[in-house]
Design a protein that fits this description.
Helix content is 35%, strand content 14%. The chain is of the alpha/beta class. The strands form 2 sheets. Strands 1, 2, 3, 6, 7, 8, 9, 10 and 11 form a 9-stranded mixed β-sheet that branches. Strands 4-5 form a two-stranded antiparallel ribbon.
């Protein structure tokens, strides 16, 4: 197997113009030659905001270098912000008129930004872009960006969810690799996770004397927002109804919540939110989490820090659904150079050249269909193609689901259910209450959150 270049080395080559990305040549996997985005007649200066870690900043710099090769009359300044502060910085800039043309937002921000009049409707820009063809993009890539049927963002980051697993940890436990073409059941996942959870004395979950307060390797982890939604949907439940009512109080949803809680508080294969922190920091990138239910945007990071990475489809109980999301670039309403901002956004998020930079770095599962094979078999890729194909299969699955899809608005248009869900469900995840006992609170307080757009005070 070829040794994968580090993300930093790859991005340095991109910025220097020495990779096949900038040369518009596609190696590895037989992907077709990339199509250069048409240069725009727009000119002037843009200020764009990136966020999160240094790898994101590096990707922005690499894309800007490539963009300016094609558009030398547009100068681009990157305002990089830490994840903890970017949202406040963005809102302050927009409210005060501080120059800012485009921003890399979270998946849950596009709808509320549009609702609050902070960002531009992109449908007119898509309509006048000759290169844009609806059929060229995977349908599931747009959902998080739509408000009242119109797109207010373009996909810059993310993709489908799946099960990453550390092949060396499975080998050490004598656990066979999951089939990349077959979805595990919840029970099969639990059985596997038991064999992969180990305490500091070497005992496995379920064995006599196992110390759940001193675990050195966990078997499984998932998100308690989008991960929880996947488990609800895979059990035949719903997060929201067609008319926007919260359905987490229904039996199928409660059973899914209870299963996730039991993984931590009863079976001890998932790190539960205990009052006392575990003395051993756990994570997939630190090689002490065996299976991580996570998204395609982690491929580059995981392949850098974990020697051998495998991928399997997300688990199910009743319905073989898949899930995913994309985080967008948005255009600010008060941008003074919207044509240039759109040229940047189209290049970085929708052109083959711009998306190839992101895809080869393992930051995005490209929504453009022509890049699917490039994503599966990138030049210098470390994660095998048959495992990367899992994400392609998940994104194009006929039963692809996201929270709010029945209602037509991603998560009901509210960017953060997490504080409300966390306050209600933490006692459940600790094993202090059954999920059924908080059914009423789930419906009452989450619907209150959706109605008032403010996190409620939970009694």
């Amino acid at each position: 197997m070829k040794q994968m270049r580090s993300r930093r080395a790859f991005l340095a080559e991109v910025a220097a113009g020495t990779t096949g990305v900038l040369a518009l040549a596609c190696g590895g996997g037989g992907a077709q030659q990339t199509q250069q985005a048409s240069a725009t007649k727009a000119e002037g200066k843009l200020i764009i905001m990136s966020r999160a870690d240094q790898s994101i900043h590096d990707l922005f710099k690499a894309q800007v270098a490539a963009f300016q090769q094609e558009n030398p009359k547009i100068q681009v300044e990157i305002d990089h912000q830490e994840q903890a502060v970017w949202l406040d910085k963005f809102k302050t800039a927009v409210a005060s008129g501080v120059p800012l043309d485009s921003c890399f937002a979270n998946d849950s921000n596009a709808v509320p930004f549009a609702r609050d009049g902070l960002t531009e409707d992109l449908e007119p820009y898509l309509a006048k872009t000759k290169e844009f063809k609806e059929a060229d993009f995977v349908e599931g890539s747009w959902f998080a960006m739509k408000y009242k049927g119109k797109r207010y963002g373009v996909p810059w980051d993310s993709g489908a969810y799946a099960l990453f697993y550390n092949m060396d940890l499975l080998d050490a436990a004598g656990v066979p690799y999951p089939d990349p073409k077959k979805r595990m059941t919840w029970d099969e996942l639990l059985a596997m996770a038991r064999r992969l959870t180990v305490d500091a004395s070497g005992r496995r979950a379920g064995e006599s004397g196992f110390d759940q307060n001193n675990v050195k390797q966990w078997g499984f982890q998932t998100s308690t927002s989008w991960g929880l939604a996947h488990f609800v949907h895979s059990n035949g439940g719903e997060v929201m109804s067609v008319d926007g009512k919260v359905l987490l109080d229904q039996p199928a949803a409660l059973e899914a919540i209870q299963f996730i809680a039991d993984l931590g508080a009863r079976h001890f294969v998932r790190q539960a939110p205990h009052t006392a922190p575990n003395p051993n920091p756990i994570g997939f990138r630190t090689n002490n989490l065996a299976i991580d239910h996570n998204g395609a945007w982690q491929i580059g990071r995981y392949a850098t820090d974990v020697k051998r990475v495998g991928v399997a489809p997300a688990p199910y109980k009743k319905n073989q659904v898949s899930s995913g999301h994309y985080s967008p670039l948005v255009m600010t309403k008060h941008s003074k150079n919207k044509d240039a901002a759109w040229a940047w956004m189209y290049f970085s998020s929708m052109s083959e050249r711009g998306l190839t930079i992101l895809s080869d770095a393992g930051q995005i599962q490209p929504p453009r269909k022509s890049l699917a094979q490039r994503f599966v078999n990138p030049p210098g890729g470390k994660v095998e193609g048959k495992y990367r194909q899992v994400f392609v299969d998940e994104l194009t699955n006929k039963d692809f689901r996201v929270a709010g899809d029945k209602n037509g608005t991603y998560w009901g248009g509210v960017p953060s259910w997490s504080p409300t869900l966390g306050n209600i469900l933490t006692p459940v995840f600790r094993g202090e209450k059954p999920a059924a006992s908080v059914a009423g609170d789930l419906k009452r307080y989450v619907e209150q959150h959706l109605t008032t757009l403010q996190a409620p005070v939970i009694q």
